[in-house]
Amino acid sequence: MVSPPAVLDRVLHLATLVGTDLARFEDESGLTTSRAHLLWVLGAAGPSTQQSLASALNVSARNVTGLVDGLGASGHVSREPHPTDRRATLVTPTAKGERAIRELRESHEQLARQLFAHVPADRLAVFAATLDETITAFARLMEET
Amino acid sequence: MVSPPAVLDRVLHLATLVGTDLARFEDESGLTTSRAHLLWVLGAAGPSTQQSLASALNVSARNVTGLVDGLGASGHVSREPHPTDRRATLVTPTAKGERAIRELRESHEQLARQLFAHVPADRLAVFAATLDETITAFARLMEET
DNA sequence: CGGGAATGATGAACCTGGCTCACGGTGTAG
DNA sequence: CTACACCGTGAGCCAGGTTCATCATTCCCG
Fold it and tell me: What would the pLDDT profile of B73-121 be if each residue is shown by its tens digit?
C-alpha cells in the first residue's frame, strides 16, 4: 500500500529537481526564472502586447514592464510599435532571444527524454493518465472551494 | 505513444497546482511560503540551530535570521539559548507554532488523500514506482554533470 | 595553557520579483 | 466632442534572496 502523502512528496520532489535543472540553465544563459518564463511564453505565442503577457504569466502588467526592461537590456527582446494600437507595444524576440527560446525548448525536451528514457511505453502511458486524472481531480477540488 | 515532454509538462502543471493550494493555506494562516517551509522543517527536525535550518532549507544562514525574525514577530517561534554552545540559538516553535505545524501537516495529508482518492491502489503503486525511478534517473543525470 | 583558525548569528548593502496606486496617452462608443 | 476604458509606466512598498564584514564563542594544536 502506497500512502498518498508519500506520493505527493515524490511529485514535489521531482518538481524541485526539475526546478534545479532550470536554475542551472539560467546560470548558463544569464536569464532569471521569470525572464526565461516570459521568453518561453513569447516563443509559444509570438510577438505579444505586455497585457497579454501579463495575463499569460499570471502577474501584474506593471511587473511585465520590469521583466521586459530586463530582457531588453540583455538584448533578448525589443519593444516594437503595435501596428494598429498606438497605446500598445509588441514585445518581440530579437535574434538572440530566438536563440534563447530555441535552447530553452531543446533543454526542456532533452530533459524530458532523459528522465523517462528508462520507462517502458505502457507504464509511461499509465503514468500520464494518472497525472491527468489527478490534475482533473484538483480542478474539481478548486471549483468546490 | 505519449511524448516525454508532454508528461514532464503534466508533472510541472500538477506541481504548480499544489503550489497554488499552498498559497491558499498561507493566506489563511498569515504565513509566507518560506516561513511555512521553515516551520515544516522545524516540525520534522525539532528545535534546531539556524545553521542547520539554513542547510535544510538550502539557503544562506543570513536569510534564516530574517525568516526567524519574522516568525518570532508573529509569535510562531522563539529563540532559546543553546544548552551547550553559547554562540548558537535553538529556534523553537511556540504553542502557536506547533499548532501551525500540525495544520500544515493535516492540510498536506488531506490534499494528498483528495488528489489520489480516485486512483486505484495498483495504479497508484505503478505511479509511485515510476516517480521513484524517474527521480533516481535524475540523480544519476546530475552526478554525471 | 595560550593563541590562531573555524563556527554561529547578525548588521549593512544590494538585487530580483512581486504588489498597488496614480497618471498620461490613446482608442472608442455615444 | 465628451466620457469612459484601456496600455504602459513612474513611484513606492514588501518579501526573499545574496555577499561581505563583524563579533563572540568554541575548538584544536603546539
Answer: 999 999 999 999 999 999 999 999 999 999 999 999 999 999 999 899 9
Min Cα separation B82/chain A (Å): 32
Residue type at A56? Answer: A
Q: Using pLDDT thresholds of 50, 70 and 90, give the confidence band for residue B139.
A: confident
Low-confidence ranges of chain A (pLDDT < 70): 145
Q: What is the DSSP string of B89-126?
A: EEEEE-HHHHHHHHHHHHHHHHHHHHHHTTS-HHHHHH
| Residues in chain A within 8 Å Cβ distance of B111 | 8
| Residue B68 approaches strand C within 7 Å at CB | yes
A11 vs B10: CB contact, 8 Å cut-off? no
Nearest CA in chain B to A120: B130
Of A17, A130, A132, nearest to B138 by CB-CB distance is A17
Judge: A128–B13 Cβ closer than 8 Å, yes or no. Answer: no
Compute the distance between CA of residue A75 and CA of residue A34 in angstroms, rounded to an integer. Answer: 16
Q: CA B25, B27, B32: angle at the middle one, nearest 5?
A: 85
- Cα–Cα distance list, A75 to A28, A31, A90, A128, B61 (Å): 16, 11, 15, 38, 35
Task: Label residue B55 by pLDDT band (50, 70, 90).
Answer: very high
pTM: 0.93
What pLDDT score does A145 carry? 62
Establish whether the CB of B23 is closer than 7 Å to any nucleic acid atom in strand C. no
Residue B124 has pLDDT above 90, yes or no: yes
With a 7 Å cutoff on the CB, does B27 touch strand C?
no
User: Could you check: is the Cβ of residue B65 within 7 Å of any atom of nucleic acid strand C?
Assistant: yes
